[in-house]
Amino acid sequence: MNTLGKKIRLLRHQKGWSQEDVAKRLDISIPAFSKIETGITDVNLSRLNQIAKLFNLSLVQLLSTSDANEEKEKFEEINELNQKLQVRESEVIDLQKKVIDLYEQLHKK
């Protein structure tokens, strides 16, 4: 089963629909829909648009390989790393100031 087929299957299960339910909504046979889910058949753009609309998604969302939770986790990780970087940058600036102060003290004598 390909990634797109898995995603369509997951979306169908989330709605509580059978393959027959989705096939009827797409006006295709159950075996034709089954081949879409299993990746046996290639899906044309028109059919992809129809599937996306059926699940209230944009075509980009349907074709996207990452899910919202994964994106949220990555975003949170990036924010956490940015915060750590800001702390480190602040520490470096403080150390630079101390070095300058020490240098000035040494040269005043």
UniProtKB/TrEMBL annotation:
The keyword DNA damage does not apply. The keyword Thylakoid does not apply. Residues 68-98 form a coiled coil. InterPro entries: Cro/C1-type_HTH, Lambda_DNA-bd_dom_sf. Pfam families: HTH_31 (PF13560). Keywords: Coiled coil, DNA-binding. It comes from the Bacteria. Gene3D superfamilies: lambda repressor-like DNA-binding domains (1.10.260.40). Residues 8-62 form the HTH cro/C1-type domain. CDD domains: HTH_XRE (cd00093). This is Helix-turn-helix transcriptional regulator. It comes from Sphingobacterium bovistauri.
